[in-house]
Structure formats: C-alpha cells, structure tokens
Design goal:
single chain; alpha+beta; Dna Ligase, domain 1; 2 domains; 5-stranded antiparallel beta sheet; 3-stranded antiparallel beta sheet
C-alpha cells in the first residue's frame, strides 16, 4: 500500500467534493508532508487523533474563491520506480505556480527550498 498516494488522493477528492476536513492514516512521513503543505498554504491545518495503535490525522482543507488550493497532484516517485534528482536538475512546477515535495537528507523540502539548500533527493509528488 502506498501511503503517500493514499494521502494525495484523499485530499484531492475531499477538495473536489467540497469537504472542509478529511481523515488520513497517520505515519511520520505523512505528518512531515502535511507540515510542508501547511507551510506552503495548500492546507489550513492538521491534527493528530487517536492513541497507540489506531492513529489518524484530520486535515483541514484550504479554499480560495470556493476552489480548493490543493487542486491536483501527480505522484512522481512510485513504489515500482523511484525518481531521484540532483539539486541542479530540479525544475519549477507549472512555471512556479505549483510545488514539488522532495525527500532529502535534510528532511521533506519543497523544490525551491531544495534548490536553495543545494540538496537533491527523491521527488515524491507535484502539487498545483
């Protein structure tokens, strides 16, 4: 099961039908991805729920003029094919109107932060 693809699809579908919140399964990677999406304004907030075995994250979606900020996403690196890029080869998404989420040795970064810190890594997905 691909937890990152699950996270992306749940957020995208919830925004498409106009929900204000969505629950996703908790993983440390999902939490760090959601922190970066919140920092960049694609979601309003997220909170961890549950204890011990069954943990979830409740994500509050961000809207602008009744359109979701998290409009669409594309999974780049998959379980079957990992995609890595050097910092010099990381290009802007949609001419700067979107972001790429990258797993680097410095943690989860956006494409612009990875270029600024001159660090490459695995390109997880692109959001616009």
């Amino acid at each position: 099961m691909d937890s990152i693809a699950n996270l992306i699809v749940k957020i995208k579908n919830a925004g498409a039908v106009g929900h204000s919140t969505v629950n996703v399964p908790y993983t440390k990677l999902s939490e760090s991805i959601l922190a970066k999406l919140q920092e960049k304004g694609y979601i309003k907030s997220y909170t961890k729920n549950g204890k011990e075995v069954v943990k979830t994250i409740e994500v509050e979606l961000a809207y602008e003029d009744d359109k979701p900020k998290f409009e669409d996403a594309q999974r780049v690196s998959k379980l079957s094919r990992r995609v890595y890029e050097k910092s010099a080869n990381i290009k802007p998404v949609r001419r700067g109107y979107g972001i790429a989420i990258i797993s680097t040795p410095n943690g989860i970064l956006s494409d612009s932060e990875a270029r600024k810190q001159k660090v490459g890594g695995e390109i997880l997905f692109k959001v616009w």
